Every structure is written in C-alpha cells, then in structure tokens.
Amino acid sequence: MFVSFPWGITASMKTATKTQQNFLSRRWGITGWQGRVCTFSCQAGGYLWVSILGTAAHFSLMALLVQNFDLNPVKASYCGAIMGAGIIYWFNFHFTFRSSTSHQRALGRFAAMAMAGTLINGRVLALALEGGGWPLVPSQALATGMQFGFGFLVSRVWIY
C-alpha cells in the first residue's frame, strides 16, 4: 500500500527509509509505530483509542466520586480528567506520536494543554448542567468531545 503526501513524497506503508523518516519527523512529526510512516489519520486513530482509554478512566473515577462520595459532579469531573490526562500522556508519548522530545519539554507542554483542556471540559460541563439543565452523562460527553478535538490538534502540532 502506498501513501501520497501533499508535498510530493510517495511512501510505502512498509518501513520508511531513514531519509523519509527524518524528513517526515522534522517537517511534520509523522513517524509512527516501528518507524512506519504515520499519516494524520493514523495519528488521529491512535489518539482516539488512547483517548477512549483515558476517558473511560475519567468517567469511572467521576462516577465513583459522585455516587459513592457525594462529590459535586464538576469537582469529580476535574479529578477524573487529571487521572485520564496521565494515562493519555503516557500512551500518546510512547505509541501514538512516538515522541523523541524530552519528557521535560513534552510534559510541560502537555500539562499546559491538559490544564486548558480541563478548563474547557469544566466550563462546558458547568454550562450544560447549570445553564442548559442537561443530564450529567450527555453534558460530560459534549465536554469530552470538545476537549478531544482541542487536545489532538495541540498534541500533534505543539507537544510531541
């Protein structure tokens, strides 16, 4: 299977040559698992799976805190988002983006993005719950979807 890139490179989905890997990595940051060329859609798919895992952890902790500890849903969501963020960072760094960036740099940037994403999540959740009168699950699903789009673009362009 061959993939054509907009800047004129056609690469096999088999292992890319070192020249292709270096060019793609420097120019667009798109080398993937085991040195294979990883396109935007490949990274988006990986990011989606990692996000599902992080979101499952987020929702699970949020539900646990709301149902068993009577914590306010917005505060419980913040706690869940922090746990989910740790899972998402680790898997995206090592698998989705195969980053060669130092953890110090990537983690600092990820922390900034996660804080912004958590604020987006919390504000959207609060607006849906308190302003729109929505139930908790649809409110959280909307907030998570908005956070996903923001997080992928920032991760791909700036963090890893």
How would you describe what is shown here?
The chain has a two-stranded antiparallel sheet with strand order 1-2. Strand 1 and strand 2 (10-12) form a beta hairpin. The longest helix has 30 residues, at 40-69. The protein has 2 domains: 1-38, no CATH class; 41-159, no CATH class. The chain is built from 5 helices and 2 strands. The protein has helices at residues 18-27, 40-69, 73-96, 103-131, 136-159; strands at residues 2-4, 10-12.
- What radius of gyration results from the CA coordinates? 18 Å
As an assembly, this protein is single chain
State the helix count: 5
Low-confidence sequence ranges:
1-15, 30-34
Widest sheet: strand order? 1-2
| H and E order | EEHHHHH
Amino- and carboxy-terminal Cα gap? 27 Å
Q: How many strand elements?
A: 2
Query: Which structural class best describes the helix and strand composition?
Result: mainly alpha
